[in-house]
Amino acid sequence: MKTLSRDLSWLRFNARVLQEAQSDAVPLLERLKFLAIFSSNLDEFFKVRVATLRRLVKLKKKTRAQLEESPRRQLKAVLAEVQRQQEAFGATYREQLLPALAAARIHLLGEAALSAAQRAWVLEYFAESVRDLLSPVGLDDTLHHLFLKDQAVYLTFFLTKPRAAPGKGKGKGPEAERVLVLELPTKRHGGRFVQLPAVGDERYVMFLDDVIRAGAPGLFPAYAGVAVHAVKLSRDAELDLEDEVSDDLLAKIRSSLAKRATGYPARLLYDPELPREVLRALKAKTGITDDELVAGSRYHNFRDFFGFPGFGPADLCYPARPPLPHPTLPRTGSLLAAIGRRDHLLHLPYQPFDYVTRLLREAAADPQVSAVAITLYRVAAKSAVAKALLKAVKNGKQVTVVVELKARFDEEANIHWAEKLQRAGAHVIFTPPEQKVHAKLLLITRREAAETTRRYAYLSTGNFNEDTAALYTDHGLFTADERLTREVAAVFAYCHDRQTPPVLEHLLLAPFALRDRLTELVDHEIKLAHKGQPASIILKINALQDPGLITKLYAASKAGVRVELIVRGIGCLVPGQPELSENIAQRGLVDRNLEHSRVYVFGNGGAEKVFVSSADWMTRNLDRRVEVAFPLFDETLRAEVRQLLDFQRADNVKARDFDNCFIGPEPADAPRVRAQEATYQWLKKRKRRP
């Protein structure tokens, strides 16, 4: 079966992010943010995927032989592609963005480019605002081990040529050479960038690194030579083997590997100009080997460009796109009453997440509400959702919170709020490590007239996180339809007792029925095609990796089913291959908002079945996570989702094909369609309905 490796496919996605930084059509300061996203993505890739491959390479030969692919071969291919992208990244920054900034009268200066007046200002700023933040550590015989923090930038100082002391003073002079290291104090300084005084319309900025470089000679007056360079270490974030091996082999591998403590080094990025003496000293004091060394550039942590000063006219950034009021949800008054009358579909970030937090606050205050249950996968640091749940506990509601402790890189916020809710009296369920709960579910139970009880639910593709809800595109369904709310209650019951998997009629639940139901739906389209009837599948997902479902889609293509894939990130299926996937087309979009929603559409002979889901088509989502795909019963809401999908299918501005080539208008003078902008404008025109 012809497929693309998961890791190389992910790197293709990050290349699409870099294309946004390279595009003249993207506002200049937004291009800097795409550089930051690319850099942040690559850091995570090294911490998780590259670290995993390196640990697989170190396994015993007999164990390694049981893997489907050679980890050594995979690692070699991945590092070669990373090197190619790093070179393109550096060229984009130096040859495109720095000149474009200068043309916009924004100058990012190194210490060598300062005028005399600017140098005097920088040295004064260094003395007053930076010097006291610095604590260099000498890499000498008194230091047994140097621990470098994960993802922090460090500056190294190579001191040479001691100055001759005046006169014949007694005492030992400075050593001929010294190596020192300090952590760049970005947080204590208040950011990575320093704004210099403007000169007329010309604006000037420096990296904090370069301010320190300018002031470094004053730190070490006894030395004539002071060379300053940057390094950064990425550490192994997690033993991430579950996607690589079977459960039996996974158990063997885990038993053969030591538990991670502070994280094994995954990559040491260093300035190529770093003196060999400094590199030798770093390796000796940290235990880093040549395998972990990656030549980078003068500057690291480009994700700090998220904090670049917001200079200049509005056209340097995307125009504001304020969230739109929902056409069927009330701006004031009871959301529960509105949900009780009909289903409503929320489209984030085009419409505000505030409807969700309002619903939670209403439930917390409503004396008729008896219980609230919710799944929390990624929680905002200052979570309005968690605060509303605390209010519900205080008001005597039975609050059940299913918390995922292993939501990678969000563990700290999740643990903080879980402990706070637990102390307040909420029933907090921590998911077991072998089965993450990735479904996004909220259930409210309310006593109503004649002693009846009614449930209200919110099912979503996105997290209960107001920060990411302003950046990610997601769909969320508000419903009181008993067909769905009864089954949502069954999912929460399973999360509580972990005994008998619920038998559901309408929700597609992983890891129990989702895979089988998807297979049945694809098979039905294959049968229709064999009968000569129209057959089609449209999938909008973030990742397509599962070998079983890829095989099934290939079978659908060979049977004549028309398959359209809108894949944001990992896409291991290879479309357009003769006699295999010639009926499969794939595109992906990268634009100002991160595409995050998942939608599955099956033609079903003209009576389309539309599911919205938390699950990508990856083995981990289908077999090792609690995921939910839910149908849209309301015809109007199905039409809404299909319209938004059609914008994505028609996009000829931001869409790329499988090979990362832009899909332009056909013919060339055809109207330009930019899906995210078209979505916003279409939703803006939606008339308010009762």
Q: Would you mind describing this structure in some detail?
A:
The strands form four sheets. Strands 14, 18, 19, 20, 21, 23, 24, 25 and 26 form a nine-stranded mixed beta sheet that branches. Strands 10, 11, 12, 13, 15, 16, 17 and 22 form an eight-stranded mixed beta sheet that branches. Mean pLDDT is 90; it is low at 239-261. The protein is globular and about 95 Å long. By secondary structure, it is α/β, with parallel strands linked by helices. Helix 1 packs antiparallel against helix 2, helix 11 runs parallel beside helix 12 (384-394) and helix 15 (514-530) packs parallel to helix 16. Helix content is 37%, strand content 22%. It folds into three domains: 6-312, Polyphosphate kinase middle domain (polyphosphate kinase like), CATH 3.30.1840; 335-503, Endonuclease Chain A (Endonuclease, Chain A, 2-Layer Sandwich); 509-684, Endonuclease Chain A (Endonuclease, Chain A, 2-Layer Sandwich). InterPro entries: PP_kinase, PP_kinase_C_1, PP_kinase_middle, PP_kinase_middle_dom_sf, PPK_C_dom2, PPK_N_dom, PPK_N_dom_sf. ATP binds at residues 41, 472, 568, 596. Belongs to the polyphosphate kinase 1 (PPK1) family. Residues 118-308 form the Polyphosphate kinase middle domain.
In CATH, the architecture of the largest domain is 2-Layer Sandwich
Overall geometry: globular
Considering the protein shown, what is the CATH homologous superfamily of the largest domain?
Polyphosphate kinase middle domain
Name of the CATH class of the largest domain: Alpha Beta
Mean pLDDT reading:
90
Taking the sheet with the most strands, its summary is: 9 strands, mixed
Number of distinct helices: 19
The count of DSSP E runs of length 2 or more, i.e. the number of strands, is 26
Helix content: 25-40%
Query: Rounded to an integer, what's the Rg over CA atoms?
Result: 28 Å
Low-confidence stretches: 239-261
Q: Write down the domain tally.
A: 3
CATH topology of the largest domain: polyphosphate kinase like
Content-based structural category? alpha/beta
First and last CA, distance: 52 Å
Q: What share of the residues does DSSP label as strand, in percent?
A: 15-25%
